[in-house]
Amino acid sequence: MDSAQHEQFARAFVQHQDRVYGYIVTMLPNRHDAEDVFQQTSLILWQKWDQFDSAKVVERAGSPGVKRDDEGVEKSARPIDSSADFLRWACGIARLEVRNFLRRRGRDRVVLSDRLMDELADMRVEAQPLLDERRGLLAECMKKLDFLARELMERAYAGRESIGVLAKQFRSTPNALYLRMRKIRRELMECVNQETGREESP
């Protein structure tokens, strides 16, 4: 991979990494499992990046009667020419990695069907403009919180610290902190909904 390809991959991956991780979490709610699969998916995306080219086809799962590449990802005839195509391609690889992970763990019986996994990927791609808009509004609403509330939510959402650790640092109990976070989330949701309604008003 030359420097130009490296830059292109980095740009696309940074843009979509949170969305790919979110797709994985819809199938693997356990954070540690999702992290493992996300890391493996990221590696495969890097290794197969040279296949992601506007002159080739977008790799998609779930379409009957189409061919698969050497990783088992199905192909359609639509050219890769958009950000959404990269996300679909990445989610297709993530889906396969989730199945491989569950199979290795002996939990194949709980794997979602191919069709449902495909629908989840398509829903994530189609809903992305709305999610991006709401994410921007959420960021604005976060700025309206007081310093401690904002710090609590940012650290909680980062997922690098347990609720027990956060409770100690915020001089609280885990149960009290959960209640506090629930109240803050409710305030944020109300703020986002208000801002959404304001933007939609003529």
In short:
By secondary structure, the protein is mostly helical. The protein contains eight helices and two strands.
Any overview of this molecule?
α1 (3-27) runs antiparallel to α2. The longest helix is centred in the last third of the chain and has 27 residues, at 174-200. A two-stranded antiparallel sheet has the order 1-2. The chain is built from eight helices and two strands. By secondary structure, it is mostly helical. It folds into two domains: 3-126, no CATH class; 131-200, Orthogonal Bundle (Arc Repressor Mutant, subunit A).
Using brief descriptors, characterize the structure shown.
single chain, 202 residues, mainly alpha, Arc Repressor Mutant, subunit A, 2 domains, two-stranded antiparallel ribbon, 8 helices, globular
Helix content: 55-70%
Summed up, the helix count is 8
Unreliable residue runs: 54-68, 74-81
Fraction in beta strands: under 5%
Strand order of the largest sheet: 1-2
